[in-house]
Hints:
alpha/beta, Rossmann fold, 3-stranded antiparallel sheet, 7 helices, about 35% helix, elongated, binds magnesium ion
Amino acid sequence: MCYRVLMRPAxxxxxxxxxxxxxxxxxxxxxxxxxxxxxNPAFVQLLPRALEACVRxxxxxxxxxxxxxxxxxxxxxxxxxDVDATNARLDELLTVDGERLIEAFYSSPFHPEGTCxxxxxxxxxxxxxxxxxxxxxRELGIDLDHSWIVGDHARDREAGIAAGIxxxxxxxxxxxxxxxxxxxxxxHIIRAAEQARGRGAATTIVRLRAENAALLxxxxxxxxxxxxxxxxxxxxxxxxxxxxxxxxxAVLETHRLAALGFAGELRRAVNRWAAARFGRGIFxxxxxxxxxxxx
Length: 295
Ligand SMILES: [Mg+2]
């Protein structure tokens, strides 16, 4: 059993004219709807190198999230079901060897001047509002401090900045921009992440092996939330944390001494909680007591 990874960096990617063709589609693509409201899966067509860019970002460790304004729903160009079908087609085109590259799609159907209830209103999900990014960060455990934005409109950037992403991590692509397309933006993001890793704090892996794996599985959520709280309080950045195969493994962006302190504190906190709940601890009390415990 593997429990949720904690705090992953993401790249939030706009949909139309960033991943797939929109502006240059033939008029049939809009049907009876407004021009630009791509709500027909048959017209979903990836832009050159979009697939390659997503593969590279995924391989570099980023969670990929699509966030898209689809105000056509508020204007009656289509329905939420059409949005879902169109996103599903894009999802299918961005699947490699059975593995989906996009973790989640967030779509905003709202527009304050729309004509269709209940979408004809202002909403913070509508870019430049931060709503979709804030929701994704909460639902998917995204670390916004290490996340990026890529889109072809100013409002794509503005939504990210409003959500707390640093301005230099919010990239606008286009023929006049520094990065012409998603592939060039991906190149920049990957290089920046590599540089940060090179000059950043050392990464230390700590493992706590349970004396009883079944008990640890039962306690997994408590272990992760305790780890998150300890990291927040002590200023240790958690790159990844998993409960799997009878052990907790935490990848921490800090030096060894601070990592040992983190592991010791986590062990004590979880053992205290388990003693109250199960009448016994989960981890051996001191590192020396357990040969598999390198923390
Ligand atoms: Mg766009």
